[in-house]
Protein 1
Amino acid sequence: MSEMTQAQVPLEPERYELTAAPPYRLDLDRREFFKFLGAGILLVSVLTPAVAAQESGGARQRRGDSLPREIDAWLHIGENGKVTVYTGKVEMGQNIRTSLSQAVAEELHVPIEKIEMVMGDTQLTPFDMGTFGSRTTPTMNLQLRKVAAAACDVLIGLAAAQWKVDRQRLVAADGKVTDPQTKRSLEYAQLTKGTQLTASLPAEDPLIPATKWEVVGQSTPKVDGREFVTGRHRYPSDQKLPDMLYGKVLRPPSFGATLVSLDSQKAEQMGATVVHDGNFVGVAAASSELAAVAVGTIHAEWKSEPQPSSKELFDYLRKNTVEGKDPTGDGDRYEVGTVDQALGSADHRLQQTYTVSYIAHVPLEPRAALAKWDRDNLTVWTGTQRPFGVRGQLAEAFRIPEDRVRVLMPDTGSGYGGKHTGETAIEAARLARAAKRPVRVMWTREEEFTWAYFRPAGVIDVTGGVRSDGTITGWEFHNYNSGSAGIRTYYEIPNQRIVFHGTNSPLRQGSYRALAATANHFARESHMDELAHAVKMDPLEFRLKNLKDERLRAVFEAAAKQFEWGKSKTAGRGFGMGGGYEKLGNIATFAEVNVDRKSGDVKVVRVVSAFECGAIVNPDNLRNQIEGSNVQGLGGALFEAIEFDNGKILNGRMSEYRVPRFSDVPVLETVLLDRKDLPSAGAGECPMVGLAPAIANAIFDATGVRLRSLPLVPEGLKMS
Amino acid sequence: MATIRLAVNGKSYTVDADPQTSLLSVLREQLDLTGSKYGCGEGQCGACTVLIDGKAQRSCVTKVGAVAQRQITTIEGLANGEHLHPVQEAFLDAGAMQCGYCTSGMIMSAVALLKRNPAPKESEIIDFMDGNICRCGTYPRIVAAIQKAATATSAAKGAGR
């Protein structure tokens, strides 16, 4: 894949996006909005149609030509000099509140402290499909830079008019416009005073090139870090209102169970509000303790259907495909050349199956929502990556127009793709409606483990054909259920057949950081290692022989250098690599493992990642994201797996589901390749995909044992 | 229900609660001290960590009846006005967070560790902190922050002598 084709790869529609009802995109009444903002300058950013189509959910969700204008950001400079930026993106630990502030500070030439980001509030921010797919940096960051640059132009124009001088000679810096010849200067606030000015973003603004960035490209610390170290920040689960009640939902004993009978008399006698609406049963009470006790007194009979178990999962997925019923409607099959012939005539032909388990996101803050009704108007504070999507779900659930629903997303205790849906919002709103008071629902850890959704499990069959000189000639790749993100190979192979098979997943599944790219990279990069061994080639040499893409080659070479690939190793140690291209980023990950042959204990001792995602926006935050991807990735690679049987989760507690801890963490070394000549891309997902294959390949290197299932060693390595 | 006297962050409070109620829910719901977080409800993740008489304790599995009259410190009681505790400063300096939801518990655990062991080795930090989960995976930064705080504290003490 050349650089051109990397840039041209269309945004892959999110296969496992749990789509809300088609949103009405209400064109905010600017006059009304201005009233709210007060005097100043308002800049409006209008999306280009191509971007709008992607960011608002893809062309298939468009409804004729009745769409209002696609507005994606507002920027307001107030009379007090305060800059307020409105975006539908949300903050959950990726640090975009900071990186987007940097973008505005750079182009508006204003100190970062003057900027306030209003994020993910459906009443105040323009429509946004959601915060996922590593889209914030390539789209919103760029958009805000444009809008800030346009605002700066307006300010310079105002100064030029006021001083009656040529605007070309004026300079904007540090929140002021200055005339270097007369040494006169005016603060932005002075320029905006008394005016109410609206401007739209010009089609093309010359932006500051990355080589000249002064704010973007710096390791600006988290803008509101102090709020977090003092415990002052109010997460969704910390939201409170006067008179608020605490809600609690009665959960069925298994997935899909239907309610047969209910006795909630005791709960009502305790003074709790009880709601019974179809299969929904919940209570609202004066404290969370009381709500839990009240729910505990309810007697309910449920009817359940038999369901498969995790023991038979991979067989089940193969046997329960839903060919042709792919919800995204895009091509599930990619074919080029003559695969069967190539595989049949290859010097070495290798066929293997790889599997990945369902895993849970385990966001440390479980789902939470606070709902308040004001007549027929509903306001909900909740932790979600899709505030507008949740608004749609609420409107649908309560059969009210979307303009009567406001969803706000206070910066949230992480998501990792796990908070796209609005379950708690609907639960809290349903209870609040009955109680006629605000109600907050916060899921317990067990609820979060059971009633959220999982990263899809999958089965992947790979067949590779290779010539004795190490040239790959044929490649067949079938993925059952886990998804098609990252399914295509970036190696140069003339004959390929790559197919995704959707299935009737036995568990509710959805997005997860890096989606199926983790599974597909695991299978592909493990198979690459197996092919390299089949032709007795060094795995790095084998990859580079079959790889033309310069950006990907560069990260493999950089990581190899830092890792000192080829160095000698001691007994029990093994080295391995994995890498690839995903979400506009390029990653190569090299791992060193130590295997204790007696105990079977596998310890990842060192991980070197080389990453390139264009021009770097915030180096320290980028390192933080890469380190975090590796640490989180360790869990899915080594030991995380959801066990289930007959509609029940068997290990849905923190004490039963192991996630990475301090003692699991290897030495992490990160090499950043800063390509100032390329557009900036996101980094929350891609760095994760190289880790699992790197570890599996390192375990093989250490022991000769080839592991083809994620998690690799949930109970240690069995050497027999 | 019982009337329970609590000493939190140097203030005394009287609450009406079942003594079996978790300290965490009383702190969060009755005293509006929401800096301590719920993460698992079984003492496995450390997000709810507070200090009881200077020792780190999981408030989600601590019954409020058991801590009456004991000195409870939450994240809200750590800074002295606008002057942050050295561990808080160190977390900011090291960029030791992403979503920040674990941060309160991490800081409280770290404060307890440094009280007991003002100059912990890396392995001692990892051992002590292993009960605290950061799902965003900022562990190496948290270790670095604790090391920074230890150095800063010993330097400050050295200068004060």
Note: The CA atoms of residues 353 and 461 of chain A lie 4 Å apart.
Protein 2
Amino acid sequence: MSSTTAHEHGAAAHGAPAGHADHGAGKHHALPGWLLFGTWIALMALTGLTVFSAQYDLGAFDIPIAMTIATIKAFLVMLIFMHLAWDKGFHSVLIFGSLFFVWLFIGFLAIDRGQYQSNKDQFDRNKYQSAPQ
Amino acid sequence: MSNDHGHGDKPFLAHHFEDEDHQFDSGKLGIWVFLVTEILFFSGLFCAYAIYRSMHPEVFVFASTALDTKWGAINTCVLLFSSLTAAWAVRNAQLGQNKRLIMNLALTILCAFGFMGIKYIEYKHKFHVGLKPGTYYAPTDEAYPGHAGLKAQTVAFVAEEGQGQEHGAGEVQVPAAAEHPAGEVTQHGAEGEAHAKGHGAPWNDPTVPVEVRERLKIFFGIYFCMTGLHGIHVLLGIVVFGWLLTRAIRGHFTPSYYGPVDFSALYWHIVDLIWIYLFPLLYLIH
């Protein structure tokens, strides 16, 4: 078990995609250059896409589209650049667990804030003449 | 099992680890736990953003026009490229390619400096036009491109009337240039104080509703907190990767010992990941 090197380590595959299994996919598996480069190209293309889509007013879809593209980029970074796709499942549990709690945090506070919308509207009506009635 | 305890041919194997895999796995778990705390740390700011944007969407839409999408997009590309070089550095370390490792670490640091340089240009411009956070918020006429304030409107009026630059219409006097000492320009009411802090005349576009104008500072408070905290992380990344670079130059990293490169790269990817969300949330609003 001790001091295995990158090219020798072939046995301990952790759910690696079939295409990389032949390289050996343990934790010391070096990702092929084409995969790293391809991921970067995809990230750049998605950046271009999000800038492009922001030039159009898509109304209620603006935020969901921008956030979907950002999330696809985040997954590319996490799964490939951060090796999560080949890493121990527990590390994925940690990071996606934390993102779940972020979702709970923002989600519950957003629900709470929604409860005070009428207070905010009332405040605006009292303070600003031009506020929508 | 191991009997060298950090000596001999494994100079970086700490004696409390059984072997190099044990050391690597412990370090990896440690960095992931740290990254979890980082995500939760930033989530407070993302939450503030979500709450204020849902309360005042029109404020965010308007304030975002003061941000230059071009710089934001360039910085996104710079960070994405640095993520590639960081990931590639891990590959180089795993394969024992020390020269390429040094090159990729240096490139990552270079990109980090590039990112901070662009941030400096952006911050400098914002401070120049008075788009400062919180109570320091005092926008000047140049603050919102396409939404000229009183000065520009008056200049246009003066030029039309052919009365020269000294005396404009009504109570508003127009400075000859934006750098002109601010105190010489008279302005109405509450704007005067804000005006004295800025360089040009205070921004006051009457076509923008007052409840939006008065709340624009909320956006810049959030903008500076989010990009500022992110920038601090980039600066920290420069320190960490500088340390890696010195170790790589000394030939410390081998295919059986590259944990620090891997863990630092994971940190760098998280910094990139935060920016992936910050860019559309701050720059691409309409």
Note: Chain B touches chain A through 58 residues (CB under 8 Å).
Protein 3
Amino acid sequence: MTRLNTTAPSRGKSYNPGPFLGALPLPSTDASAERWRMATRALVNPTPSTYAQCAPRPSHDVPLTERLFDALAAFKLKTAMLAAAHFNRDERARLFKQLDSLLDAESWDSADVVTTEASFTTLLRMVLFLGGRRPALGVTGTGNFIATWTEGNDRLTIECKPEDHVRWVLVQNLDGQRESAAGETTAKRLPEVLRPYDPPKRWFPHATDQAAA
Amino acid sequence: MPPTKLPPEHHIVRNVPWGKLRKDENDPEKVIGVLGEAFKMRPVEETLSTTWLEYFAGTRREQIYGAIRAMRASKLEIKSKSGFAIGNVGNITAVATAHNHSIRVLHEPKDDNKAHVAVRRWPRDDMTFFELLAAEAWSELVLNNHENIPKGAQAAPDQSAWTPPGAAAPIRNRPNPLTD
């Protein structure tokens, strides 16, 4: 069960995001700490009572609707814990709208494994690390999130696997010639791996610039 | 009788669940295409399951309606926000060959879908191949809830409207010498 960390963030030392997002994201100022607490409160009210109070049951005992609801709640809590200080209100609302749409029980394919928190964590960390344009979302049949960027015929698709592993495939058109590339790496290495290609430079220039430096 | 191999100019249709449709980055309800993931076989699939478009009689639009209604009438779980990706057999086979997959597109009717087509020798996992199909060869998309798609389900007829060149036309399509 995911527990909400309500401990006040330390303000004694300066905020150091560290080499990657493992250090994310304790707020560094009073204002951001308050914003973080407010976001957390808003996310957990109302909290699904069973989610907060009951021990997890084996997944085959739990109806799909309930599993989707629990997953959705877990993703929103995770966002509050990991990314509240890095997403403004609009971005958070946008992400939650995407999640609500994707995990809607009326549309969910019951043959698919419900997306996992481990994949969502990779997605969040990757999105925060890349910055720039936020992706559209999809799912695999095996419980992973898919992040997509599309511009005309150029498309980048990234499968977010647990523990920061990502599988990516890029299809782009250069002067009428189709070019494709694919690979598997970690979220941290992604900007460097994608640096030779054009669309990623347009979609998250800050990350690719950092990789170049 | 061996299964019929689909001609390269024909088309196959695959149901694509909501989560495997490509969305607009700014509007999660706006569908802009198909994800390569749509062409990954499910664990229960031994072959890639699709439906034969030219099995149905009529104009292309009527064939699309026929295929969709047949899939709705089958055991497939068709959700209202899902879509149907349509691909040309020859183009799909060409992309597969370029990726060293020697696929076979065969009419293998099932009890719940007489227009069922099994794509055999389909790879379990080849992300680039699937994504290239989604980008071009298998990118035509019809949404299940599109206002122009009639509601309802109807099982595919027992016999195909299409017959191989040189073969006798199916009985229901043959001209009646008494009336024609």
Note: Residues 4-173 of chain B form one domain.
Protein 4
Amino acid sequence: MTRAALPALASSAPAAPALRSVQCTINGEPVAFGVAPFRTLLDALRHELGLTGTKKGCDVGDCGACTVLVDGAPVNACLMLAVEAGGRVIETVEGLAGPSGELHPLQRNFMRCGAAQCGFCTPGILMMSKALLAENPSPTEAEIRFGLAGNICRCTGYTKIVEAVALTAAEAAGGAAGDTSAAGRPRAARPAPGKGTR
Amino acid sequence: MIRFDYADPATLAEARALLLAQGNAASLMAGGTDLLVEIKEQVRVPRLVVDLKRIAGLDTLQVDADGALRFGALVTARRLETDARVRARWPGLHQAVTELGSIQVRHRATVVGNICRASPSADTLPPLIADGAMLHVHGAGGDRPVAMEDFFTGPGRTVLRPGEIVLQLRVPPPARRSGRVYIKHGRRKAMELATVGVAAAVTLDDGGRIADARIALGAVAPTPIRARRAEAALVGEKPGDSLFARAAELAMEESRPIGNVRASAAYRREMVGVLTRRAVQRACGMALAEERP
């Protein structure tokens, strides 16, 4: 990986630092782009690469709407510079669905449970939930809530979000448990008694 | 965002040279979760951001042969949170890194960055002071150790000289028959800045008396402080409710809180008392539990 050489800064700094070239993998595809050194990964994704699924909420790391996975780890794209993405593997909400467009189980279950109201927090919560289930395939309700603490749903619709994540975990554990044709609120989504905090 | 340039030097010498050449116009970046917010809010307006991430060796996390915990400037809060040794042996520090920001933030934020940012309410400072942690500071004139409790000079201010970089942190091994606790007080369970943070580390002697006590208070003074009079009142005594109440009273007197949007000064002082009592009580409980065969 060739990173740009150290900048030679004149003492009377020019207004615009030189663009940096960044090569990384985004949603499985190798990507190369030029970016100003002060651009966040979030702004680069949205403006340089047209990946507007990742949302800009607070832009200071408080709301989690910009959550993406970097080498598998969930991070706020607003708190990372785009130049730091060089050589890394980035996953955004655009990469969740399969190659022929079939939805990711989390996406399917968010729809099935009605876990989106305005939808602004949904991409970040989907990515955080993917990371959560990768680390802990059968979380309790308390663990799901702890894991999603950095994602604000401005509509405050957390109950169905937690149900959708629990249902996805239950499906993965039980195999046949997931009947994708069923509508409405599935019983399986409710945490087992005594497992959660409330 | 203001326009700044970015450098990711591969060696400490290059990083130091960049910092010295730019003076106040350069900002050092580890995780960047505080720095980038400060830049966006124009609390800082650097011309150059010097990223430490490409410098080898700063991401090590280990327990030494003597039982001490040692970790570099790039070790994230999340790595400490998910380390079973940290959870078991340094529970005060573990509690602090578990309550810092969100999981997303903790995957980027470093503990050394949390220290160098020197916020009076930073979560990791009280437990590290109570644990007696030492910083390894690297500079042009050579390296020097600095005790955590001597590192801070004011909000956002430290003893670091121009060009100096904190390379790593050493947290001493837990003593036998000891307990370590951090209690964060806030208005909600997560994504919160501490209104008050209290850490206690207590060691018992063979007779069940308190041999050593360290109490550190966060968010109630311009820097985190030790409650030395409260500590002195504990040493040599048998743990008990009236003793804990006495220590809590002294810690309240030693705190110098301000009132702001998160809490009034009077409320903070009151909470110093409540949390000091609980922290010392729990730390003594942990030490006693360890005594059982």
Note: The interface with chain A takes residues 1-9, 14, 18, 21-22, 32-33, 36-37, 40-41, 47-49, 51, 53-54, 78, 101-105, 107-108, 189-191 of chain B (CB under 8 Å).
